[in-house]
Amino acid sequence: MVYKLLICVALLIDQPKFYAHSMTEETMLAFASAWSRLDLEAVMDFFTEDCVYQASVGIEPGCTYTGKTAVRQGIEQMMHHDLGSESRVHNLCIVGERGFWEWTYRFANGDLVKGCDLFEFHGNQIRVKNAFRKTRG
């Protein structure tokens, strides 16, 4: 847990201002719930119009989607990619305009996929979601 504290402190140092309607843990957990339910409409309500989604799989490596229409397409593809899994988030940390969480997907066949997301917020909405995934080598 020390690493989480250190990362939160590092994020805080880089935060010169706070919005009156800053991101909250409650809002992020509602976002996680919508994602887990595969509720694309609800998920998209959490994003700004100028959002960016950097998926954890793709040709870059990963794949970057910019703007709400493209982000919607990217998230829909990722939901299809992880179909049949149960997702959980943990170790959520929000500091001003930035945050992160770790996540786990468990598939019916027993496969386990772990990763984390780095976020940038604008007020109480997600402007950037940058996902990282651990892979077997």
> What overall form do the CA principal axes indicate?
globular
> Low-confidence runs (pLDDT<50, min 5 residues)?
none
Number of strands: 6
- Please identify, by name, the CATH architecture: Roll
Helix content: 25-40%
The biggest beta sheet reads: 6 strands, mixed
- Quote the average pLDDT: 88
* Element order: H for helix, E for strand: HHHEEHEEEE
Structural class: alpha+beta
| Cα radius of gyration in angstroms | 15 Å
Strand content: 35-45%
The CA-CA distance between the termini, in Å, is 27 Å
| CATH class category name | Alpha Beta
Helix run count: 4
What name does the CATH topology carry?
Answer: Nuclear Transport Factor 2, Chain: A
Oligomer: single chain
The tally of structural domains comes to 1
Lateral arrangement of strands in the main beta sheet: 2-1-6-5-4-3
How would the blueprint of this fold be written?
Layout (H helix, E strand, L loop, with lengths): L1 H12 L11 H12 L3 H5 L2 E9 L7 E4 L1 H14 L3 E11 L2 E10 L4 E11 L2 E9 L4
Parallel strand pairs: 1-6
Antiparallel strand pairs: 1-2, 3-4, 4-5, 5-6
Give me some keywords for this one.
alpha+beta, 31% helix
Structure description:
There is one protein chain. The protein is α+β, with helices and mostly antiparallel strands. The protein has a single domain (20-132), classed as Nuclear Transport Factor 2, Chain: A. Helices cover 31% and strands 39% of the residues. The protein has four helices and six strands. The protein has helices spanning 2-13, 25-36, 40-44, 68-81; strands at 47-55, 63-66, 85-95, 98-107, 112-122, 125-133. The protein has a six-stranded mixed β-sheet with strand order 2-1-6-5-4-3, sandwiched between helices. β1 and β2 (63-66) form a beta hairpin. The longest helix has 14 residues, at 68-81. The radius of gyration is 15 Å and the shape is globular.
